[in-house]
Amino acid sequence: MNLNDVLKIYKNPGADEQEMLCRRGIANVDAVRATVEDIVERVRCEGDDALRNYAQRFDGATLTDLKVSQEEIDAAENAVDSSLKEALKTAYNNIYAFHAAQRMHPVQVETMPGVVCSQRAVPISRVGLYIPGGNAPLFSTVLMLAIPAKIAGCRSIVMCTPCDHSGHVNPAILYAARLAGVTDIYKVGGAQAVAAMGFGTQSVPQCYKIFGPGNRFVVFAKMLVAQMGIAIDMPAGPSEVLIVADESANPTFVAADFLSQAEHGPDSQSILVTTSEELARAVANECGRLLETLPSRDMILKSLAHSHLITFDSDEAMMNFANLYAPEHLIINHSRAEQLAEAVVNAGSVFLGPYACESAGDYASGTNHTLPTAACATAFSGVNLDSFVKKITFQTISADGIATLGPTIETMANGESLSAHALAATVRIDYVNKSRKQ
Amino acid sequence: MNLNDVLKIYKNPGADEQEMLCRRGIANVDAVRATVEDIVERVRCEGDDALRNYAQRFDGATLTDLKVSQEEIDAAENAVDSSLKEALKTAYNNIYAFHAAQRMHPVQVETMPGVVCSQRAVPISRVGLYIPGGNAPLFSTVLMLAIPAKIAGCRSIVMCTPCDHSGHVNPAILYAARLAGVTDIYKVGGAQAVAAMGFGTQSVPQCYKIFGPGNRFVVFAKMLVAQMGIAIDMPAGPSEVLIVADESANPTFVAADFLSQAEHGPDSQSILVTTSEELARAVANECGRLLETLPSRDMILKSLAHSHLITFDSDEAMMNFANLYAPEHLIINHSRAEQLAEAVVNAGSVFLGPYACESAGDYASGTNHTLPTAACATAFSGVNLDSFVKKITFQTISADGIATLGPTIETMANGESLSAHALAATVRIDYVNKSRKQ
Fold first, then answer.
1. B356 touches chain A (CB under 8 A)
2. Which residues of B are catalytic?
3. What is the ipTM of this complex?
């Protein structure tokens, strides 16, 4: 297939053109707003009844129990192919090892004699994970969310995922959930799942933080509950990759990465940035060749319509553009990949060298695949162990400590016209001074 | 002053009554929605002109330059009392020491032979801090936000704060900003400041994350820009303290802490939880006595109307209630404070023992005072060094690494019907195998 008409090469774009190339499609929330607001309100008021009605309406399933039973989970074990089970275990081990290494070192500092400040990671006691159904069973996302929740020590790990019309949840999802330590699974999909975990129903317990991907309805439902003070992992948009490559890169590798991102959905975006126009042409050719073999061809062609090949004169210009774009996934397939990595300011997750394909991180190398999109990488981290804990600070102050620090507190509190704040120090200083005289 | 009518004692409340006692006042955003939406839209479209118009309208100031000049910052040095400067330096040192100790240890794990995953903290390049004007100059908040931003390595630390009608910013705020390393200060207040930092204007640069407290207009403006994908520190509500105390606690200390929280604003809340009814009565008496001396008396009386004294039968019941309430500030003034601290699940910042008053942490001990309110402590951390960085993951995979990990990626990708994801592994495995045969 010849993609020369689809994949145009932009050469050395100027500032304005770069800004245009960084623009993401903006989801039109107006189209889903009324529907989602209605769903959230109904779930809030009617609880399980609303969830059963939506399961009937959207999934075609008549449900009595919303909760997946132990028998269903046990049965999944036999329904999953043994090679997939092995693959899930390998992925589990790698994801576990990398996230366990993220455990926080306790912090304790005596900032002044007698004034000891410390910081501890305390798990969020109940978290809610949303796993979409739809075209494909996203068992990889189950691992990516539940493994760090378990390592963090979350006591209750709730999961919602839609069932099929006969009321079954995909067995690979159930198998991954058990492997990773999910505690409760419910047959609830879409915006109604987010509402159920956000507010709680008779069956689904209220969760303090909601994680997971989803369609426009799910994403908007997460924004709605976030406005009501419930924590969410991050804002979500279409998936994207930016590949930085020089003439050393294998065009087949680059093309496969380019296409793999494009296959996520019709609004996904792949960008190649290179100092080699020859590579850009070769990648376009390889994309055309590889595309012939792929079942997801039609989906990929839609994404390619808003994907770009861009050339720059220097590595510096490439990395500047990469930071301006702030990609969810950044592949640096370059002879000096490690050196260029030092210049990364804005990215979700970075893949270095010829062999680190994005799909390694999507599935099994150990890093998380829930990452900031739509330039949110300027300020947001991907999901990591921190996402499942609160870092709580503690302080103890001795009698000597308050005697030393107290006057500073008094002066600052009075400077801010907060006299009772000053008083809280004063009554203690007076007490300590009096005790000393005795 | 006798507060027996105001401060009623709840004895051993049951589950329903506990839930009622945990309820926070819900801010009515409808009252400010239209105003804030209009302000945000105008700032977005009209930029500096809108900011100058609002400065005229809300602050009574006619401004040419929105940016605070170097001369104004220099002049602040002389205008601030030397005792306040000394106090600010002491607070600076303590806050710096505690936040510097929070620097992340780099994480690197070889999850499988040839598969190396790492995680690095990369500063958010431009952050925006909002410092309210109004009744009191919150120079302490300048330190709490700018010091960790500086330690994190944020290149640009933008601050907005309203000026008075003659166009001046409070000198203590300017002094604290210089001390802490703020790079640019603008005379912009209210919702318009949040919009300016969120979208950028001709003068104010666009910031990737916005921090800081404010009134209902500011808080709602932050929620609005957050919906558009701009990061904010956390949702904000009225300030609150929960004090856990046993019979060993000094009632004067407890009363001073109770009142100091109540002085923050008319919707602030103070809660005392104790196993000693005698202490509860003594605290009520001491509140009445101390209140007489305080200039902020009228404000405090408003808050006390929705503050509570509660008794429980056991330490366990007290800590259960504390975790249910999930307070912004938790004071454990108890003979076994350190032991009870182990049971803390939900809290913003914790103060242990008789001498650790909340105002120590509000100003100068070293911990941060920007903390989650309204039970958000169930899922949110207070501002800390993490708030100013992104934790970006990196991975390198060797030829041997992809040969080992590749089949796992292929199996999982095919299981999720993502054939191009599998292909990205396949083309590399084939290449490696071919190279080996040669």
1. yes
2. 328-329
3. 0.97
